[in-house]
Amino acid sequence: MPEPKVREHAPDQTATTRRFEKVNEIIERHGKLQSALIPILQEVQEEYRYLPEEILTYIAMAMDLAPATVFGVATFYAQFSLEPKGKYVIKICDGTACHVRGSNPVNEAIRKRVGLSSEHKKTTEDMRFTVETVSCLGACGLAPVVMINDQVYGQITPEAINLIIDRILEEEGEAK
Amino acid sequence: MIDSKTKLCELRDKWQAALEHEKARILVCAGTGCVANGSLQVYQALKQEVEASGEYVSVDLIIEEEESGISVVKSGCHGFCEMGPLVRLEPSGVLYTKVKVEDAKEIVDALVNGAEPVERLLYHHPTTGQVFKEEHNIPFYKHQNRNSLGHCGVIDPEDLREYIAGNGYQALAKVLTEMKPEEVCQEIIASGLRGRGGGGFPTGQKWEFTRIAQGDQKYVICNGDEGDPGAFMDRSVMEGDPHKLIEGMAIAGYAVGADEGYIYVRAEYPLAVKRLKIAIKAARENGLLGKDILGTGFSFDLKIKEGAGAFVCGEETALMESIEGKRGMPKPKPPFPAQSGLWGKPTVINNVETLANITQIINQGAAWFKALGTEKSAGTKTFAITGQVANTGLIEVPLGITLREILYEIGGGLRGGKKFKAVQIGGPSGGCLTEEHLDMPLDYDSLKSVGAMVGSGGLVFMDESTCMVEVARYFMTFTQNESCGKCVPCREGTKRMLEILERAVNGEGRPEDVEILEELALAVKDGSLCGLGKTAPNPVLSMLKYFRDEYIAHVVDKKCLAGVCQALKGYAIDPEKCKGCSKCSKVCPVGAISGEIKKPFVIDTDKCIKCGACISACPFKAIKEG
């Protein structure tokens, strides 16, 4: 969308309003009771792919809650991320069934393939991949299981996951 | 709008009769497992083939116009995930396994021409090679008794009409028109139904406590936060038969005097959320939820709450905190939810599978339910059988069945004919059972007596290649991660226990650790508020009880008997076999191998990182692990 000219004259205000427009809309829809906080955070995260700090503060203000309450909830649940996530979120299931059927080698293969060397890093430099383990995806019959965005892949081996990632990279126009 | 019991019965009869006109029905499993294996594409292909044959007719036409033909329907989970994608034919009961898009034509041709089913897609017994045509004859299904899962894989979960044609909402109509709330509670008490989520508390009593509690507002909550790794029965019910859950909750609402309910579903189950939303909408539009249900004056409505990824929210008080929009931390009991639950109001909170049993109990009577299972553990229970077992999947059997029956008759033994070592029951809160427990009846009380629990019903089978110390470490990592941090013994204790176990698998274990581990385990058990902390040490305690030798081998002899723990592996070159070709030293990434050409080489174990590169490089198989 072309930027409206008015922005040049009052950059801060308009930018801020626009930034929070979507958040306002989400809060509006859910109401300002505390019981709506988790659904609001979920929708905001869907929109921004993570929960930027200033938005958390804004939500606290808008809902008349202490910022500590909002941060407390946002950091308590595993689903919420205060750091930006990559375009492809790869979740490796490390539930018991997947664990005993070899989810570890799959995890290692993925991290190696997308180039995440340090154990603490979750997202690649180019913001393309985020790799994380989850406790159980509930597809234990197909262990080990990997979920990329919303697509579930079952009976995965290190070789199979490499092929899947190759396909993604190819679609991204990065054929080797 | 279905505004009376009479109307409900009329529709049932009409739709039932209409569905009988159906020549045949092709049911494609659309549970999470089969979808991952491509069942949606199989569904499309089958539909196209049936259309091409000119026999296709949609369920809409069958029900509304009473036309005849073959329909193709997406169903809930059939349970036999290992063999997916699964396709079932009605009315013949033929089950096709591992169906691919390319097989669609052959399947449809055989069906349309009335020929014998396609043999290569039928289930073949892995050892005897025997071919099974019908689903109910396959050993995996033969020993089951599917009640709460009865509709899963048989009806289209997104079509309310099919649920009603199969006697749906009759139980709700019965309680609303014929029973008083206290009679409903009594009926559930008489059935002996116990909570299927783990605790095993009598469901009817929970209802009765909530019913007699004083309060202007009461709530019914369905706990669908199925967090136990290795269990997926609740997901299957929510995905495969959402109306049964809704009906069960409405009955609970009537029994306790609540007009509002919440279904708390974990974030990892997007398909379950989608199907529940569709079902709630349909129920509401037809007057089966909302105000004045079936013209009886009873009102009840439901909301879905999606969890945000916290295992501890499976604990009831934590779950309610989470619905209120707070951090999901447990609260001390009493007061129990029945007195003071959601927003301080009397609340009945039941697990998905528990609620999925209600309609059958009302329809078929408490006595029927009580006759299934054992005296103190009535009814049937679902178990998710996973791990190194040949037939993984979801089963439902009467309580009191033995592990041996589940493992060998339903599960088909261990994969690759390996030897059974242990089974983890009840997830990270349960314990492991060994060979000696194979003939013990599986029920709430016998399991408790040996330090395990039914839990949600996850059975993860492990063979001899599994290291039990590593498994204990795995569970400790899980509970340590999921500890909410409220109680110090759980927060700090699990961390210290994990450190000790990590030392053991990394080859740095100390012999004195075993006593500290046991002491800590008991402290965590005694000093924690909720079920998570109270049960977190169970896997470690049962490992120390049944596999103490393995633990001692790790910390004293620095050996992993199963050969799993990397750090305890050592590589050595057999001088007899080594020809001194130097291939190994060239591939070694850390330069740990040295030697003279044509003489045996040696590995410097201090430098070796145990990557295994030398093993694959050696043409003479001279390098040994151990």
Structure, explained:
- The complex is a heterodimer of chains A (176) and B (626).
- Chain A is α+β, with helices and mostly antiparallel strands and 176 residues long.
- Chain A contains eight helices and four strands, in the order H-H-H-H-H-E-H-H-E-E-E-H.
- Chain A has helices spanning 6-9, 11-30, 37-48, 53-63, 67-76, 96-100, 103-114, 158-171; strands at 88-93, 129-134, 146-148, 151-153.
- In chain A, helix 2 packs across helix 3 (37-48), helix 4 (53-63) packs across helix 5 and helix 7 (103-114) packs parallel to helix 8 (158-171).
- Chain A is elongated and about 50 Å long.
- In chain B, a hairpin with a 6-residue loop joins strand 5 (123-124) and strand 6.
- The model of chain B has no long low-confidence stretch (mean pLDDT 92).
- In chain B, the strands form six sheets. In chain B, strands 12-11-15-13-14 form a five-stranded mixed β-sheet, sandwiched between helices.
- Chain B has five domains: 15-140, Glutaredoxin, CATH 3.40.30; 168-369, Rossmann fold; 380-463, Roll (Ubiquitin-like (UB roll)), CATH 3.10.20; 468-555, de novo design (two linked rop proteins) (Up-down Bundle), CATH 1.20.1440; 569-625, Alpha-Beta Plaits (2-Layer Sandwich).
- Chains A and B meet through helix 3, helix 5, helix 6 and strand 4 of A and helix 2, strand 11, strand 15 and helix 20 of B.
List keywords for this structure.
heterodimer, A: 176 residues, alpha+beta, Glutaredoxin, 2 domains, four-stranded mixed sheet, 8 helices, 50% helix, disordered N terminus, B: 626 residues, alpha/beta, Rossmann fold, Ubiquitin-like (UB roll), 5 domains, five-stranded mixed sheet, 27 helices, globular
Question: What layout of secondary structure does this protein have?
Answer:
The complex is a heterodimer of chains A (176) and B (626).
Chain A: H1 6-9, H2 11-30, H3 37-48, H4 53-63, H5 67-76, E1 88-93, H6 96-100, H7 103-114, E2 129-134, E3 146-148, E4 151-153, H8 158-171
Parallel strand pairs in A: 1-2
Antiparallel strand pairs in A: 1-3, 3-4
Helix pairs in contact in A: 2-3, 2-4, 4-5, 7-8
Chain B: H1 5-20, E1 24-29, H2 32-36, H3 39-53, H4 59-65, E2 70-75, E3 87-90, E4 95-96, H5 104-112, E5 123-124, E6 131-132, H6 139-142, H7 160-165, H8 170-178, H9 181-191, H10 203-212, E7 219-224, H11 233-240, H12 242-256, E8 260-265, H13 270-285, E9 301-306, H14 316-323, E10 347-351, H15 352-356, H16 358-364, H17 366-371, E11 380-387, E12 393-398, H18 403-410, E13 420-425, E14 431-434, H19 444-449, E15 458-463, H20 468-482, H21 488-505, H22 513-527, H23 531-535, H24 538-546, H25 548-555, E16 571-573, H26 583-587, E17 593-594, E18 602-603, H27 613-617, E19 623-625
Parallel strand pairs in B: 1-2, 7-8, 7-10, 8-9, 11-15
Antiparallel strand pairs in B: 1-3, 3-4, 5-6, 11-12, 13-14, 13-15, 16-19, 17-18
